[in-house]
Amino acid sequence: MTEIRCAWAKLPLDIDYHDKEWGKPLKDEQKLFELFILETMQAGLNWHTILTKRENYRQAFDQFDPAKIANYDEAKYEELLLNEGIIRNKLKIKSVIKNAQAYQKLLETQTFVDYIWRFVDHKPIINEYATISEVPAVTELSEQMSQDMKKKGFSFVGPTTCYAFMQAAGLVNDHTLDCTFR
Hints:
By secondary structure, the chain is mainly alpha-helical. The protein is 52% helix and 2% strand. It has a two-stranded parallel sheet. Keywords: Metal-binding, Zinc.
């Protein structure tokens, strides 16, 4: 049987990500935080760019340890700005630190997994789109997530970023109907 993938998965790195990660329900605290941070870094760029730099991000941001990131000082921020292996956007780097701080604060009352998954009542939403062009960039749910995350102190969490995160983490399954990985 020939494997059919969603139309966006064309390059080897994208295919590997599509086949092994995208749209699969993710409920591991550490991996969910990593994916969230990567999605915020992707804002305005394409996902392939982020995937090619993923290992560099892991190294630069202490394997996405939120407790460490939340305590980054000005010297660490300046070091990150000089790191050619990541996207050196001042606002995005500051947002990673801010998001780690908001994450740490959130942990005082609940896990990040419980917080994120409550938006879909802890069950993935299975959409049935025939083509990738039918898949929305924003939904009412991603608008709600965006607003709530902003209230909790997170940044770079617009509704488009939130929806991309929901897709990536499997809160919504937007694999097209012909995709054999559905």
